[in-house]
């Protein structure tokens, strides 16, 4: 039985991915900052993990035991005008989305390299496939992981280890806005409001969107892919953007 460890499992893509792997017979280690075992079947192993804390990372990996796949899904959302976004908020986004993902990779790579196998799946965003308004800092944090993962994949191939990217599209069925509500307060100013209204109106008209299950399916496909393929677009909109690219 293969084992997958997934970060950021309290909702959205992470929670859907836990269910997807578990339903297919995998041993699943679901991690989150504040563990909630009631969210999952009893067979799912739930552990605390803060990807911005090196000690927390080491403890989670030790408690999980040998794993075959690491899914770096934990992330913070941010929507607002860049000029109104405090530098501290930008740093907060990068700490989780960028440096947190890198820290998880840094911790697992020696374990995978020693075994001569393993897969790292880094979840980014379709915002890296085409420009979107009012997500400049968020896009930057995810785009950094795109470049990072491409390079890492080349480094790890020598040792039989794979690194993959999953690029989800726009998904209205997650807690992206709810979880980041406090962080996004005041990021739409009076000067930016007219443009923001147009952007929100455009989102409301989007018909080809992404479901959490779409992302879970892409994550599972990436986890089981033994080829040199790097990118897996998740959702109809992301796939369309990837095709255009």
Structure write-up:
With 245 residues, the chain is an alpha/beta fold. The chain has a single domain (3-244), classed as NAD(P)-binding Rossmann-like Domain (Rossmann fold). Helix content is 45%, strand content 14%. It has helices spanning 12-23, 54-64, 87-115, 136-157, 176-179, 193-204, 212-223, 236-244, and strands at residues 3-6, 27-32, 45-48, 69-72, 119-123, 162-168, 231-234. It has a seven-stranded parallel beta sheet, sandwiched between helices. The protein is globular. The termini are far apart.
Which structural class fits the helix and strand makeup?
A: alpha/beta
CATH class: Alpha Beta
Largest sheet: 7 strands, parallel
Radius of gyration: 18 Å
Q: What's the helical proportion of residues? A: 40-55%
Determine the CATH topology. Answer: Rossmann fold
Count of distinct strands: 7
In whole angstroms, the N-to-C terminal distance is: 37 Å
The CATH architecture can be named as 3-Layer(aba) Sandwich
Q: pLDDT average, as an integer?
A: 91
State the order of secondary-structure elements, H for helix, E for strand: EHEEHEHEHEHHHEH
Count of all domains? 1
Quickly count the helices.
8
> In percent terms, what proportion of residues is strand?
5-15%
pLDDT < 50 runs, ≥5 residues: none
Q: Name the shape in a single word.
A: globular
Widest sheet: strand ordering: 3-2-1-4-5-6-7
Summarize the helices and strands and which ones pair or pack.
Layout: E1 3-6, H1 12-23, E2 27-32, E3 45-48, H2 54-64, E4 69-72, H3 87-115, E5 119-123, H4 136-157, E6 162-168, H5 176-179, H6 193-204, H7 212-223, E7 231-234, H8 236-244
Parallel strand pairs: 1-2, 1-4, 2-3, 4-5, 5-6, 6-7
